Queue: 2 jobs
Job 1
Amino acid sequence: MENTTTRLHLLATYLRLRFGARVQKVPLDAGFSCPNRDGTLSRGGCVFCNPRGSGSGLGEDGLTLEEQWTVWTGRYARTRNAGLFIAYLQSFSNTYGPIDKLRHVLGVLPVLPGIVGAAVGTRPDCVDNERLDLVAALPLPEVWLELGLQSAHDATLARINRGHDAAASERAVRDAAARGLRVCAHLIAGLPGENGDDFLASVDWVNRLPVHGVKFHGLYVCEHTALARQWRAGEYTPLERETYADLIARALPRLRPEIVIQRLTGDPAGDELLAPDWAKDKRATTARIHELLAQRGTWQGKDVAKDAPNGPNGRGGLGVPNESGAPGTSGTSGAPGASPAPPALAAPPAWFAVPPHRLPGATPRLRDTEQARAWETEYAAACATFPHLRPVPDGE
Ligand code: SF4
């Protein structure tokens, strides 16, 4: 039976090849706030945001970063046999507030036991040169900036009370990528006022930006949010699972093959979720997405294959936008709210196609085990089937 993960460039696979071991992201609450909650932009926040700010809540329980780390890594070591970890500053907007606070928090991370990387979650309007420089200077092999872009459409961003526009998102992505940060863009399907084509236009917009990872979320309704009030008043209806799975299965083939898929659907806390009920069962949703991809004979990047590493344009082509800023494929138009003519982008760094431990002069991967070699063999076999994957010969 087909290994369902091979149709996508998933984070788990990327990290296994990168480090030769299972790597687990550890959610941390560093006690930051958000300008969209503290009254600077608004007090209500985004319509879907509850007072936890998408966090674990452990920070509110008074645990320090080190204590949270001990709790989570102990749990993951027991339940998932993980020994390597990425610190994920998840709650609220982690580059917001005094820069000394950010400096202090980032200073704690590199000495946490088992850490191999960091992911800093924030809003596009909360990053400036100084903050990006600080994050980019983290002495860790994997450093990601996770940006909540959500939509390419200014009308939607206003409707969900984001407090920034698509131009701010573009600036933040480009400024972070220019510093060598790996940018993970968050996108939401099922936003109020949007249809499927609007969502796919946002996917195409992200695809043209220098992003290295994407997280897809289906919009769900949590208690204590503005969206909950709209849902109760009959003003908002969440997507059905089948509609959501269909949208993601249509989005993935349009996404550059080297982009790391970090999430296929959201994962609401059971005690917060009001609707839709299917959001509780993440496995069923991801299984349906994989099933649709298989039924349709497609995979991530198939629709942009002529620019992909193994596509007709050859190994040199990495699916990067051409000079007009378009991805050089099906001629998608610019999304409303996006800059009409984005400037040309530099080629993505080499690690897009080549696991970094293979790069000349790179530090060898942390674990060179039989399991790690088995994963590489499995990956090489998958490469023979799916052109979005690229075999990496020894010595490259
Ligand atoms: S930016 Fe994030 S933390 Fe701030 S209100 Fe929106 S969802 Fe909540």
Note: Residues 65-80 form the longest helix (16 residues).
Job 2
Amino acid sequence: MIIRKMKCLVLVQLIACILFTGSTADDEWHYPSPDPTGVINEPEAWGGQCDSGRRQSPIALSRAAAVRGEFGPLIFNNYKLPIRQALLTNTGHSVQVNNNDTSVTIQGGGLPGRYVLDQLHFHWGSEHTIDGVRYALELHLVHHSTLYPTLNDAVAVKNGVAVIGVLFHVAAQPNMHIGTILETAIDIRSVPGQVAPLKAKLAPNSLLPVNRTAYFRYEGSLTTPACAESVIWTVFPESVALSLDQVDQFKVIHDQSGHELVNNYRSVQPLNARSLVYAREWERASDSASGSASTAFPVMGLLLVLLVISKV
Ligand SMILES: *[C@@H]1O[C@H](CO)[C@@H](O)[C@H](O)[C@H]1NC(C)=O
Ligand SMILES: *[C@@H]1O[C@H](CO)[C@@H](O)[C@H](O)[C@H]1NC(C)=O
Ligand SMILES: [Zn+2]
């Protein structure tokens, strides 16, 4: 009996060992650490498409570099519902909340179809910059196209994945919803792979900016290895507030080598031969035409009257 138990234990350990080394092999990449002055000098050098790709993310966003876009409204379905059985995971590269409710989707806004929310996670130090300015935090809401069964399948296809980026700026007041994430993150902060149920309800909608009528749109990649170029990006120029204390609470989350994950953003990548679109609800040409129509009608009426009179 004892021997059998021991054999069993050895087997369990062996399997655990295989699984563990398997996952570390995939995860053998890291963010370069900032030097003592806070500046990051090293390139990421993650290899593969991360280095050779020409449609990589993040990029430097600016209205000056963008072309005008006009899409239908971006629609968030069931974003106001709290995420069911929400779990927070320390991935060793970020903290992530998974969603497996396929009714939480986005569509419209020029997206080629409907996309299901898979997970949301954070980068401290924003990945995208706007007019050269880096924000304190960036939220990524990662979705896959309903044309594919899973995110894994969709990652291999152009426009298979849609990511919404939300930037956060530092303000005096803490952000209650970020507070929910951080209160749970404390319990899993030192052990990558550890999971904890969120300590309060969290609806994805509560993390979005109020005004979503304006956004940047471009085609790019995942910002972590293997940097697959399958992502249609939407980043709002309107940022959301959180406190400085909250920003610092992200920085004590530990990575897979047991160090504090001080920064987890990738450096901006070249735009190359891509268009950056700035979309908003532009004043419609037809609106201004109908606006002037009311003043044009009496004039036309008068002309008609004059025509009729001249005929008589
Ligand atoms: C969603 O995930 C939870 C755990 O987070 C699990 O209990 C539940 O069965 C899952 N639902 C579906 C539809 O996969
Ligand atoms: C939303 O933001 C856009 C771009 O900054 C602006 O043009 C628009 O007026 C804003 N809408 C509202 C309702 O504030
Ligand atoms: Zn991300």
Note: The pocket of zinc ion (ligand 3) is lined by residues 121, 123, 140, 223 (CB under 6 Å).
